[in-house]
Structure formats: structure tokens, C-alpha cells
Amino acid sequence: MAVWQEAPIYDRLVTERGDVPAQVRREAEQTLRGLEQVIRLGVAPAGMYPQQAQPFPPGP
After folding, report:
1. Which terminus of the chain faces fewer neighbouring Cβ atoms within 10 Å, N or C?
2. What residue spans of the chain are helical by DSSP H?
3. 24 has pLDDT over 90
């Protein structure tokens, strides 16, 4: 058990604000899975821009 979970203030904050560390952890894990998919397949998941196949053409 983590030290902050033993503190009564932590329990009160979780009750008032939600378990922010757990929410952040879930978002980070979801982002990591999405990035792994992009790296592995070279395909962007829904909501992300696909990688460009070619660099930008030279300017005028």
C-alpha cells in the first residue's frame, strides 16, 4: 500500500476530487498503447494524425 493511501487527507481528497493519480495512470497507459500501435504498425489510431509518407516539398 502506498504511503499517501494511509493518510486520511488522501481519502478525503479522493472523495472530493476523485482518484486523480489513478485517472492519470489510465490516460498514460492508453496513450502508451496508442503510441505502441503507431510505432508497430505505422498507422495512426482514431483521432490522431497519420504520419506523413514524404517530407514537405521545398518552399518557393
Report:
1. C
2. 8-17, 20-41
3. yes
